Amino acid sequence: MPSSSRSPDVLISEVGPRDGLQSVKATMPTADKFRWIDALVASGLREIEVCSFVPAKHLPQMADAAEVVRHALTHPGLTVMALVPNLRGAESALKTGVHKLTIPVSASAAHSLANVRKTREEMIEEVRAIVRLRDQIAPQVKIEAGISTAFGCALQGVVAEDDVVWMASHCIAAGADESGLSDTTGMANPAQVRRLFNRVRAAIGDKTGAAHMHNTRGLGLANCLAAYDVGVRTFDSSLGGLGGCPYAPGASGNVVTEDLVFMFEAMGVSTGVNLEKLMAARAPLMAGLPGEPVYGMTPEAGLPKGWTQAVQAPAALTL
Which of 94, 242, 265, 284 qualifies as a cystine partner to 35, CB 3.0-4.6 A? Predict the structure, then answer.
């Protein structure tokens, strides 16, 4: 089904250059990151999480974060995002001129300690400190608190829904602009996704942020559709399904951007992303990470016979 030329109905937020690259052993050369980001932008993607600001000794894959941000900022109209786990990372990121910060805060007490070495309560205070710094030096920058392990935790098991709502509410009270839900360990199911997003929206309203789903158990797209059904309009995904979480055992596989875009476009829900150009962006990814497996049913099967897509990359985003 062809897309219309109207403004996109959903925002696809590409997280491969951060979530994907930090989850593989190899380090993609900086020049290859540039080429990959260029190709992603050329497909019409309007928001990309390009890196995380963490010590290189912990994640050498992100040692060139500042250079990557500077390159991404050369693309007009692109929202350049970075993940920051603490105040120090936020300060470094804000100095580079990023447009948006994502702060990972865990609903699971065990995952919080493993991922950022802080309790959940300490992370809420960290959000507050980052917001104060943002207000002082870069008030135009948006801050999202992404609630990790919102649907279950590989370390502690069940995560109470009340804990998720509590964390989202406290992050918004601490000054975050929005709070989204992450299925860090791929445990979510569609009924759970609908229920929890509805509960969070009842608590924080239009500050409810993105759905960040993993395909660990094959339900990634189903969970994205469930989130869409209850009003979510921003979806994180990774080209080729690259990524996971190094501090959540077995948490493989972000939702594949190519499959997510195909699903929405086939439904008549416009994404603003050109599928053929998006699939072409796999080439610089694979060139920069030779031998690393990439996934995706749509790229393997190809587009259906007779498929036409009217969408074009926005003029501001063409290379």
Answer: 284
